[in-house]
Amino acid sequence: MSNNQKTSGGFSSLISSIAIVIALLIGIVIYIFILGDKANFVDGDPTKEALDGNMLGIVYKGGFIVPILIAVNLIIIIFSIERFITLAKAKGKGSINVFVAKIKSLLDNKDLESATAECDKQRGSLANVVKAGLVKYEHLQNDSDMDKEQKVEVIKKELEEASALELPMLSKNLVVISTCASVATLIGLIGTVMGMIKSFAAMSHGTPDTAQLAAGISEALINTALGITGSAIAIIMYNLFSTKIDQMTYSIDEASFTIVQDFSASTK
What we know:
By secondary structure, this protein is mostly helical. It has helices at residues 3-35, 55-60, 65-91, 96-108, 112-122, 125-141, 148-171, 174-202, 210-266.
């Protein structure tokens, strides 16, 4: 790996870390200044009950776990948007299937120049890999120092190296989304347990404290809802992006195989 790649990877990791910290800060701000606004509570006092039907005040009563869950949901949204943008850029222009079919057709006609031009038009990860293979293909055609098997191996290696440079970008930050899918549920469960503890505490004395009992149950359900919501969104996004990456990877493998087979068939 080159120094530039290491620097780029380190910078991307730093950006990801900063995004997570910012999401946490935003979650805290939302909890304190929006959910905890005095207008959401009886007598303008956040320590009292939320006004009837005021969802902001009700969510605020979920306790200190709420801003963490808000942050987790924000992280999922932020990184989902980032993946949509990155994968759209990696996909390039037009349909991938149409591009692969066109490359196959041009290779069948031995039109390497037009095939390379198509890669320049497509501008996606697949096009970058194909172009790397086509450039090596054209270079080796007139190389008399290697035999056919050696040339084929060189092209395969060039395609593998080009793929190795593109694939990490496609799957980058998916681990954050997959982690949030699990963490959101667990954090929500912590809030649920804490709410239930308060509820049982309200019933531990002779006469149950109905207000405290209701507050505990409300806290438990709010945290459960936020945790499940975050987890559900993260799972859907992760599976969606994984499917897109698998399709792109398959297209890269298909195009690479076509290039190698065409070179092998046209070279003596």
